[in-house]
Amino acid sequence: MKKVAIFASGSGTNAENISRYFSGNQQIEISLLVSNNPKAGVHERMNRLGIPSFTFSGQTFAEGRPVLEKLKEYAVDWIVLAGFMNRISAEILNAYPGRIVNIHPALLPKYGGKGMYGMHVHEAVVAAGEKESGITVHYVNEQYDEGPVIFQASCPVLPSDTPDDVAAKVHALEYEHYPRVIASLLSGGCADTFGRLCLSVFERATADYHATDDVDAAVRNPFEPGTIESRLYLKNWIDAVQWHLEDLIRDPQIKPESVVALKRRIDRSNQERTDLVEQIDSYFLEMYKETPVRPDATINTESPAWAVDRLSILVLKIYHMQQEVKRTDTGDAHREACQRKLSILLEQKQDLFTALEQLLEDIGKGKKYMKVYRQMKMYNDASLNPVLYGHKK
User: Fold this and answer.
1) Which residues pair with 139 in a beta bridge?
2) Taking the CB of residue 32, how many other CB atoms lie within 10 A of it?
3) pTM of model > 0.70
4) Which of 49, 152, 278, 360 is the most exposed place for a label (fewest CB within 10 A)?
């Protein structure tokens, strides 16, 4: 049973909708409400549902410890923000890494940040003449509305729409999607699954690389050498470097000698990437070596580590598409096209994540068996590449 605390500050319509959605659920329970507003309507809504509610001052939230003690008392696993108007302290974030989610009433990264909440968002959308708005479910970090995006859904904004009209459309999306996304996260994408671990590490590595955005920057892997977390972090870092090497080699003004140097560096990077994928598959082979395989077990089209490889690259694609949506040196058509592509990438991430989790579950139950073919990159082998061994004649 996963236990959830809802943080809310206002009337509580979303909090009530989420609570009713999980009423009677045997796997997920809304255990309590936490608020910073003693007069908020959400208290009455939750009390009617038999869910206890507690109020803490802004100063107490900033301190973090008293709130954490209450969450511990109720054995809370996840925190869901539903119209919560207070910054989450570092202490709470550290206690719930990758297990705090929020919903924002716009298509982030547009119309996010401090001061962008409630009707302020919808007024800004209408004032800018946007053709669409929507919702964004995202993980919570130290900055307002800047955590990794989990899910987005959009709705049209008509020229005749008022901010109230947009608010009604967005609210309908919140009702429809937010509980379902929470259910997906807690039932299939929990922090204790391997897929969630991958996403957490990949998103951290992607953010760390882009802090310098330098292909020559030293890797400062925060994880213990030899651990699977360390390999996942290095895997994504290599992918990020190679992503930018591929950008550099396409510069129309690049010097021919630089092309050769970059091509050989990309070649080495590809080999390092393959080596790491094989190390990750070795981790899985060791994990499942004692698992009884059913007589009717089938083989998958790819090994778990190659699915992990695709997930790493997808995290990078999402990061870069989000940057394109934020660009101010392009027209609306470019940004709108990138927003549509971002929605597709987010859907792909959820689908790939689910497929990886299902594959690992099937392997763990003996319904599929692991069989790994090591990559044979013939161009890197001096005995197999005819250009290389031809020089020896």
Assistant:
1) 101
2) 20
3) no
4) 49
pLDDT of residue 254: 92
SS3 letters across the chain: CEEEEEECCCCCHHHHHHHHHCCCCCCEEEEEEEECCCCCCHHHHHHHCCCCEEECCHHHHHHCHHHHHHHHHCCCCEEEECCCCCCCCHHHHHHCCCCEEEEECCCCCCCCCCCCCCHHHHHHHHHCCCCEEEEEEEECCCCCCCCCEEEEEEEECCCCCCHHHHHHHHHHHHHHHHHHHHHHHHHCCCCCCHHHHHHHHHHHHHHHHHHHCCCCCCCCCCCCCCCHHHHHHHHHHHHHHHHHHHHHHCCCCCCHHHHHHHHHHHHHHHHHHHHHHHHHHHHHHHHCCCCCCCCCCECCCCCHHHHHHHHHHHHHHHHHHHHHHHCCCCCHHHHHHHHHHHHHHHHHHHHHHHHHHHHHHHHHCCCECCCCCCCCCHHHCCCCCHHHHHCCC
Of 91-95, 228-232, 306-310, 386-390, the least confident: 386-390
Q: Catalytic pick from 104, 122, 138, 320?
A: 104
Q: Which two tokens mark 129?
A: 């003449």
Surface-to-core class of residue 270, CB atoms within 10 Å of its CB (0-12 exposed, 13-18 middle, 19+ buried): middle
What confidence tens digit (pLDDT) does each residue in 10-31 have? Answer: 999 999 999 999 988 888 999 9
Residue count of the chain: 393
- Per-residue pLDDT averaged across 373-390, rounded? 74
- Listed as own residue / partner, the contacts of 336-343 with beta carbons closer than 8 Å and 24 or more positions apart are 336/131, 336/132, 339/107, 339/110, 339/132, 339/154, 342/149, 342/152, 342/318, 343/152, 343/153, 343/154
Please check whether residue 95 is in contact with residue 78, taking contact to mean a CB–CB distance below 8 angstroms. no
Dmax over CA atoms of the chain, in Å, equals: 86
Report residue 155 as tokens.
């709705």
User: Which tens digit of pLDDT belongs to each residue from 107-140?
Assistant: 998 899 888 988 999 999 999 999 999 999 998 9
Cα–Cα distance measured from residue 376 to residue 209, given in angstroms and rounded to the nearest whole number: 29
104 is catalytic: yes
Per-residue pLDDT tens over the stretch 41-57 = 999 999 999 999 999 98
